[in-house]
Input
Amino acid sequence: MNGKSVDILTHFNVEKDIIIREAAKEDFNAVFRFIELVDSEFCPPLSQRGGGIYERVRNTLATPDANYLIVQTKNPDPSDKIYGFLAIVGCTRGWHGKDRAYINFFATHPAYRKAGLGEILLAELERKLLEKGIDKLYLCTWTGNKKAMRFYEKLGYSIYSVILNDRGRNINTFNYRKKIEPAKSAKQ
Output
């Protein structure tokens, strides 16, 4: 990372090159910097929403029913300010019911897109949620995020509501949900 070229991870070497883990309070700076890296891709940018990125990360790391799940290189470069983070998903458990969770953030490092990390990360999130008795997962995206919409639909998410002009003129919010099935989660 750090401006150097990166090799796209293949499914062959994923297990030896990465780890998936929950964020700890000590990860605040790296999570914050990762979100800053992708901030402009959100509509509106997360930095422009109430509390900005700082409050979003602080609140998620401080809330017992919320956290980030991180894909990270096993041996990150010590000078890497995002500490080898390749993808992050933020999730809040118990959202509108004890069997529901809401994805409040999801992004892959721009240099690692199309490497399958997003699918791996969401499958692991689903597996962890099922272990906690949560079998309904929700998220949202917006009109201009067609790649994300195709990605979520490929993974079994379906639109259950659309809020017109929610993010500005002709920028609609699409609310997605998925019933998590054990066979469709990560390998047990």
